[in-house]
């Protein structure tokens, strides 16, 4: 039996998906939630969840944030993103964030079931179409984390989390001047002029 949770902020979609999956004896819909935080609260208490169907656009915590937090929980739950977004940057970011699969909301029943059953076995599921979109996005966006040094990647990650130069310097055990040098090099490599543009481009390029 595959124990599954559905998390999506659209009531009608959650209900329809639940009714569809009820027809299949090997799938047990344990619960449904409209909010990412509710899902996380449940996963902290339940250890027998196999698969989570997760939307990206939700209130409070979006799908990206939930993926990152699931990685830090003691759970066997494996997330499958099910979203209206079919752009390569969304797919790549979710894959990087720990998603085991990615489905577009217009996927048919057979594909939905295949993804759930595949992921429940601990395997990844990305259809040919989804994989092509992800590969095309990555090939078209040549700026990558590999173009930054390890230290620059660390600094960029901390910048994206809102830490100040002084706080980053303290965490990395270097001087504020060193961090400013790293910041300047990152701005130059990504061809942007300020922190807001840096975060925007780094997110678009799937670096953070």
SSE diagram, text form:
Elements: E1 2-7, H1 11-22, E2 27-33, H2 36-45, E3 51-54, H3 63-70, E4 78-83, H4 88-97, E5 101-104, H5 109-120, E6 125-126, H6 128-140, H7 150-160, H8 165-172, H9 176-190, H10 195-204
Parallel strand pairs: 1-2, 1-3, 3-4, 4-5, 5-6
Helix pairs in contact: 2-3, 4-6, 7-9, 8-9
Structure description:
With 208 residues, the chain is of the alpha/beta class. It is built from ten helices and six strands, in the order βαβαβαβαβαβααααα. It has helices at residues 11-22, 36-45, 63-70, 88-97, 109-120, 128-140, 150-160, 165-172, 176-190, 195-204; strands at residues 2-7, 27-33, 51-54, 78-83, 101-104, 125-126. It has a six-stranded parallel sheet with strand order 2-1-3-4-5-6, sandwiched between helices. α1 (11-22) links the parallel β1 (2-7) and β2 (27-33). It starts with a strand and ends with a helix.
Category by helix and strand content: alpha/beta
Terminal CA distance reads 36 Å
Number of helical segments with 4 or more residues: 10
The description of the largest β-sheet is: 6 strands, parallel
**What portion of residues belong to β-strands?**
5-15%
Radius of gyration: 19 Å
Helices and strands, in order, run as EHEHEHEHEHEHHHHH
Multimerization state: single chain
Overall geometric form: elongated
The average pLDDT is 90
Note poorly predicted spans: none
Report the helical percentage. 40-55%
What is the strand tally? 6
Enumerate the strands of the largest sheet in spatial order, edge to edge or round the barrel: 2-1-3-4-5-6
């Amino acid at each position: 039996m595959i124990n599954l949770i559905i998390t999506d902020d659209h009531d009608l979609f959650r209900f329809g998906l639940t009714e569809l999956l009820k027809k299949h004896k090997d799938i047990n819909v344990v619960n449904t939630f409209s909010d990412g935080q509710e899902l996380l609260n449940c996963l902290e208490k339940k250890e027998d969840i196999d698969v989570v169907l997760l939307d990206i656009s939700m209130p409070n915590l979006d799908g990206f944030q939930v993926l990152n937090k699931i990685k830090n929980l003691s759970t066997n739950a494996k997330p499958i993103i099910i979203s209206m977004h079919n752009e390569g940057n969304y797919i790549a970011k979710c894959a990087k964030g720990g998603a085991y699969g990615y489905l577009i909301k217009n996927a048919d029943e057979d594909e939905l079931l295949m993804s759930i059953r595949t992921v429940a076995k601990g395997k990844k599921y990305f259809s040919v179409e989804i994989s092509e979109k992800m590969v095309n996005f990555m090939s078209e966006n040549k700026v990558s984390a590999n173009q930054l040094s390890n230290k620059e990647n660390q600094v960029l990650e901390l910048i994206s989390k809102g830490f100040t130069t002084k706080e980053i310097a303290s965490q990395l055990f270097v001087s504020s001047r060193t961090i400013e040098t790293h910041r300047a090099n990152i701005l130059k490599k990504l061809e942007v002029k300020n922190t807001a543009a840096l975060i925007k481009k780094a997110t678009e390029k799937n670096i953070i």
